[in-house]
Amino acid sequence: MNPLDQKHFLPHCRTGEAGTTRSPAFGRCGRVAALAFVFVAAFGFTGCNDGTPVNDEPDEPAAEALSTPEPMQAFEDDGDVAEITIGGDDRMRFDTDRFTVRAGQMVRLTLEHTGQLPAQSMGHNVVVLVEGDDPIEFGADVNEQGGSMDNDYVPEPVRDRVIAYTAMIGGGETTVVEFKAPESPGEYPFLCSFPGHAGMMNGIMEVEG
Ligand SMILES: [Cu+2]
Question: Do 192 and 97 share a structural domain?
């Protein structure tokens, strides 16, 4: 099959047999589809689907890692949730250096790594610290206290300084952490604890009374 035929083939399969195009290999397109699959696989296209985005996210990050402590995990959603999204890129930057929540409010914090580099070289997480802690110092302590990909660069000895943290992710990945904001209003620093990132990647979670 040459590329010209391919161009015609893909739209045909996508719209041809309405409602049954999810698995073209079992449909009328049969062997042609099989050939197309080879082509698609080789060139990274996502033809013959029904237009829904292809979920190409890797398996859950750091599934084996020391898991996020219980209190940081999912809460009962009572409808009063602060939805916060922070982007991180391949240039070692967060797109947000400040966000505000209310004291005691449930927070759903999403980190989107908008870059392409893998977590091993440009990993990002978001670590929210207790009030008054210093993100640069914290980053240095993570390295001294055994920070690694296995513990999302939040090793056990520094966890008493942490209110919440996300998994460490690479380009194209997204991760979410849910937690309850502190009851005490104030400024709570956050950072990325990947080695060398805290200086560039830090900010403030402001807790309003
Ligand atoms: Cu980072």
Answer: yes
Look up the pTM and report it: 0.66
**pLDDT value for 104:** 94
Amino acid at 165: Y
Q: What is the CA radius of gyration of the chain?
A: 22
Q: What is the pLDDT of residues 46-83, one digit of tens each?
A: 333 344 334 444 444 444 334 444 444 556 777 789 99
How far apart are the CA of 94 and the centre of ligand 1, in A? 8
Residue 164 and residue 193 in contact, taking contact as beta carbons nearer than 8 Å: no
Give the distance (Å) from ligand 1 centre to CA of residue 198: 7
Among all chains, which residue has been given the structure tokens 């996210």?
A: 57
Residues 33 and 76 in one domain: no
For residues 10 and 85, membership in a common domain is answered with no
For position 191, which CATH number holds? 2.60.40.420
Residues 38 and 124 both lie in one domain: no
Q: Residues 98-108: pLDDT tens digits?
A: 999 999 999 99
Question: What pLDDT sits at residue 143?
Answer: 97
Q: Ligand 1 centroid to 25 CA: how many Å?
A: 42
Tell how far the Cα of 192 is from the centroid of ligand 1, in angstroms: 5
Instruction: Tell me which amino acid residue 135 is.
Output: P
* Residues flanking ion ligand 1, Cβ below 5 Å: 124, 192, 194, 197, 201
Percent helix, percent strand, percent coil in the chain, to nearest 5: 25, 25, 50
Report how far ligand 1's centroid is from the alpha carbon of 27 (Å): 46
- Distance (angstroms) between ligand 1 centre and the Cα of 123 equals 5
